[in-house]
Write a structure and sequence with these properties.
It is built from four helices and no strands. It is mostly helical and about 90 residues long. The radius of gyration is 17 Å and the shape is elongated.
Length: about 90
């Protein structure tokens, strides 16, 4: 069973909190809130997304690289991670 399946409830809770944060940005913009307030909301979302991303990457490292069943699986998982990291750091 994949780490994302085992941690499904926890990961979904984090996504739902981020969804609520996005809705707060929408409400702030609709209400013509000050830009400082909007920027603070956006920074919170970015932090939440970075935390979620880090958690999924950590699970991937442990399950598919550190505890890989074969060298082939390890190499494939490392390639997947590198592909995501290349996109992430752009």
């Amino acid at each position: 069973m994949s780490h994302t399946v085992r941690e499904k409830a926890k990961l979904l809770a984090r996504v739902r909190r981020m969804k609520g944060q996005m809705e707060a940005v929408e409400r702030a913009l609709e209400a013509e809130a000050e830009c400082g307030e909007v920027m603070q909301l956006l920074a919170s979302i970015r932090g939440a997304l970075a935390g979620l991303t880090g958690e999924v990457i950590e699970g991937h490292l442990h399950e598919h690289i550190v505890h890989a069943q074969s060298e082939t699986e390890r190499n494939q998982a490392a390639d997947e991670l590198m592909s995501v990291l290349r996109t992430y750091v752009r």
